[in-house]
# Entry
Amino acid sequence: MIKLVLVMLLGWVGFALFKKILNPGTSQTMNTKSGEKIVLCSVCDTHIPESDVVIKNGKTFCSKEHSEQE
# Structure
């Protein structure tokens, strides 16, 4: 039983490393956005990245529709 678990674990690790070797750019792309600041929408309290925020009268909104409700 232990041998089976070890073989499965080694297979999974090998597969993950193989995928990383074939597609190395995806992890770098995700890491660059992870440092972005998250803010709340003033209407629905949804967490949104700062780059997607709509700002009106000093308040932050998740969409144009929410900014028009205030």
Summary: The longest helix spans residues 2-22. Helices lie at 2-22, 25-33, 64-69. Confidence is low (pLDDT under 50) at residues 27-32. Strands lie at 38-40, 47-49, 54-56, 59-61.
